[in-house]
Every structure is written in structure tokens, then in C-alpha cells.
Amino acid sequence: MKKFILHRLFAVMLTLVLPLSLLSQTTKKDASSLQLGYHKKYDNTQLIRAVISVQKDRRYSPLANVVLKFYSLSDTSITLLDKIKTNDEGVAILIIQDHHDITPDSLGMMNFEVEFEGNKTAEKATETLQVKPASLVLSFLQKDTTKYIETFVTTPGMGNIPVPVESAYIMYYIQGTFELYNFGEGETDENGKSIFEFPIDMPGDTAGVLTVVAKVEEHDDHGTLEANGVINWGKPVPLVVEKKRGLGDTDAPLWMVYTLIILLSVVWFHYLYVIYLIFKIKTD
After folding, report:
1. Tell me, what's the pLDDT at 24?
2. Which residues contact 192 (CB under 8 A, 6 or more apart)?
3. 143 and 115 in one domain?
4. What is the pLDDT of residues 147-194, one digit of tens each?
5. Which of 18, 105, 169, 184 is the most exposed place for a label (fewest CB within 10 A)?
6. How far is 227 from 181, CA to CA, in rounded Å?
7. How many domains does the chain have?
8. Are residues 152 and 159 in contact, defined by beta-carbon separation less than 8 angstroms?
9. Is the separation of the CB atoms in 214 and 137 below 8 Å?
């Protein structure tokens, strides 16, 4: 009898434990993907941009409201810089100037590591980024009637002496109201310099003033660099105020005025005709 009871208890335990074990085996977390980028803006703000996403049905979707850990790596240590929560697009941004404990290695490279520890639905992910700080400087020059944009790309060398960056690909833009408009491209020479002839028919504001933006985008060693400058080399474009004429305006379109007069005249004619018929009925 005791053996029978023990067998029954063992069978009951199996029925409880087995589904849980099967559930743990069938529950699979989504694969996580981390992408890192370095960006030095025109105001010298340096930032690390991390984007995390998960793969679902062969598509990647941003992972929002999760914490990413940013580390600084040196030759001998690893330092936690910050813990930053991602936005709705799965993006977390670290401002480098806010952290004074970032130490370049012996080659002058800044090394970062970003970690996502994973959660109930997404796997753990870690990515590293190595970047060497550089500078992009934009200036304007004119020879006779020809105008040029001149850019320099350099990186700090021994004793902070600038070292030119050769073969850096530069894109030139005009700053619009909502976005950038590309109008040219160039590449730095052995002196880290690129010269681009400014188009003579480039439209500006009413005074010909415009903002020129130069970018080195996603360089293998230096990331994304940005510089801008304001100049009055654009073609002045007068401010055009579109004249709209409506029914309530004093200068309404003539066809609208004549149509309104005819319609009102027809209406009043019917009113007068009805009044005339009423009087005629009473007199008869």
C-alpha cells in the first residue's frame, strides 16, 4: 500500500514539474543587437550614441525603456560612466564632456563598452567602440570672384600638435528650416585639407545669408565630425507673400462678386414675387 502511495505521489510530482521544464525549454528570448557611434558636433560636444533593437520574425524593432551601461576602457581598468535608459526609438546618448574619468589608451584612442544585461524577453548584448578624437574646421575664402569652402581635419599628435587626417570624406550641406540639403562633397589631401568651390547660384535668405555645414560621416577611426559657418554668399531670395483672395475680402475675385450678386438678386426677386402674390390674393 505504501509503495502504491509513493508511486502516486511521484506521478503527481512529474505532472507538475514536467510542464514547467517543457515551458522553460520552449521559452526563447529575442536576439538583441547593439550599435554604437561617436559624434562630435559643431559646438565641440562629443557624444556616444547607442541604439539597441531586438529581432522578431526577421525584423529588428527598437527596445525602449531599458537600461544601458556605458563603460570607459583604459589599458589597465574599466570604469562605469553611466546607466542610461533608452527612449522610444531604443536610443541612449552619453555626453562625453559630462565625464572626466575617460582616459585614452597609450595610442590616444578612447575605448568604450556598452552593455545591456538582458531581460525576460531579450538576450544580453555587449558592444565596444574605439575612436580617436579629431577636429573638423570650416572656413571661407575668396580669390577674385571665385568663392571657396575650406575644411581641415586634424587629430592631436605628440605634444598636442595637430596631425592632418588624409582621405577623410567630407559632405557639404546647406542648413534648411527642417533638414540639411546636400550640395557637394570632397576629400582631404595629405595636409588634411579639402577645398570646394561654392556654387554661385545657391539661394539664401532675403540678404543672401545661409549656413554651410560640413560633415565627416562615420569615419572608421574618428566617427562623425561636424562643423558649420554662416556666410552671405547666397543668392538673395525675396520674401514672397502669397496673396489670397476670399469672399469676405474687399479685393475678392470678380467672378465671385458677380456670382454672389446674381444669386442674391434671384433670392430677393422670389421674395418680392411671393409678397406680390399675397397682396394679389387679398385684393381678389
Report:
1. 47
2. 152, 153, 154, 162, 163, 164, 165, 166, 168
3. no
4. 999 999 999 887 778 899 999 999 999 998 888 999 999 999 999 999
5. 18
6. 15
7. 2
8. no
9. no
Residue with cell 510542464: 19
Q: 166, 212, 213: which is closest to 193 by C-alpha?
A: 166
DSSP 16: H
Task: Give pLDDT, residue 150.
Answer: 96
Per-residue model confidence (pLDDT) at position 251: 65
> Are 95 and 46 within 8 A, CB to CB?
yes
116 lies in the same domain as 75: yes
- 249 within some domain: no
Enumerate residue ranges in the chain where pLDDT < 70: 1-27, 240-252, 284
pLDDT value for 151: 96
Q: Comparing C-alpha atoms, which of 85, 35, 39 is closest to residue 60?
A: 35
CATH number of the domain bearing residue 171 = 2.60.40.730
Chain centroid to CA 193: 28
Q: In percent, how much of the chain has pLDDT > 70?
A: 85
Instruction: Say what the pLDDT of residue 171 is.
Output: 96
**127 and 140 assigned to the same domain:** no
Domain for residue 7, yes or no? no
| Spatial contact of 97 and 45, defined as CB atoms under 8 Å apart | yes
Integer Cα distance of 20 and 92 in angstroms: 36
Note down the domain range covering 192: 135-231
Residue 51 near residue 90, CB atoms below 8 Å? yes
Please give the sequence-ordered ranges of beta strands (E in DSSP) within the chain, or none if there are none. 31-40, 46-56, 59-62, 67-73, 78-85, 91-95, 110-116, 125-131, 135-143, 146-156, 162-164, 169-175, 180-187, 193-197, 210-219, 223-231
Gap between the Cα atoms of 101 and 72, Å rounded: 8
